[in-house]
Amino acid sequence: MLDQLNGLEKTALDELHSLASMEALEAWRLAYLGRKGSLTSVLRSLGKLPPEQRPAAGRETNRVKLALEQAYGEQAAALKREQTLRQLSQEQIDVTLPGRPVEPGYLHVSTQTLCEIYAIFAAMGFQVVETPEVETDNNNFQLLNIPPYHPARDMWSTFHTTREGVLLRTHTSPGQIRVMRQYCPEPIRVILPGKCYRYEQVTARHESMFYQVEGLAVGRHVTMGDLKGVLTHFARQMFGANRKVRFRCSYFPFTEPSAEMDMDCIICGGKGCRVCEHTGWLEILGSGMVHPQVLKNGGYDPAVYSGFAFGMGPERIAMLKHGIEHIRYFFANDLRFLQQFA
Length: 342
Ligand code: DAH
Known about the structure:
It is built from 11 helices and 9 strands. The protein has helices at about 1-15, 20-30, 40-45, 55-90, 110-120, 135-140, 175-185, 225-240, 290-295, 315-320, 335-340; strands at about 125-130, 135, 165-170, 190-195, 210-220, 245-250, 255-265, 280-290, 305-310. The strands form 2 sheets. A 7-stranded mixed beta sheet has the order 1-4-5-9-8-7-6. It has a two-stranded antiparallel ribbon with strand order 2-3. It starts with a helix and ends with a helix.
């Protein structure tokens, strides 16, 4: 019995010291110290010994059990330490490696163009006001002199909502009514930038969502000369000091008289090319003297006050400035396009 115990102790310890993994260690523990392990079965067989041999055998068994348990604990600690060291050396972080670069963000080309427009008009005393994109039919049309069923409504293909009389604004012009009603009888010099929506076929020049910048000046002695001066200055600030502009008669229900401002083509210098459709001129914006009825709708007495207004598409301005061929590029979120304006 004692020989058997000593043999067992020796094999167990030899085996233990050659173990290299936590799994093997666990298997060893079950094999020797577990409920069905060798040492346990020795302990169980103690009862079969003659009584006089039992105490010595019992003592020896306990000694071996303690020795194995202690050795087990030491080996477990050693393996754990080894494992940690291995992990530390494998998962080492090289703090001297260069970091992953984070590219700085930048403004979208539409926003950049808007900012340039703001700066030019700010220098002439125009402040920026934003008005809602979801508008009433009243503000978007009726108060701008476009009654229901008026053929001029065909100029704006409209996204209507399920709520009667509520729509997505087709232009920034309804902002004129809002601003006039808010500031009347103060003089006004504002630009109204923002998104507009039209239910239209997407073409090279048209998207169903686009930006507009509206302008409005109202005061006691505002004339067509002011309109021409302000807009000519804008074109030259935006596109170069030598730009030629012309004002061409047009029609908008909310202005009288109305005019479109053209600029000599920046691609061909006025000789005629594909971009200007061989006219030598590029249309930049719509404008006019605020219609007396619209002034009245805003709260101003047209006998005392007058004003001018204009509306332009900043995407179109950007397209001309940067030679961009399709308006769809602006909102397609293709980085190859956007990064050119970083
Ligand atoms: N609202 C017009 C449009 O979307 C543009 C416009 C033309 C605005 C003349 C004006 C203006 O303020 O005076 O087509």
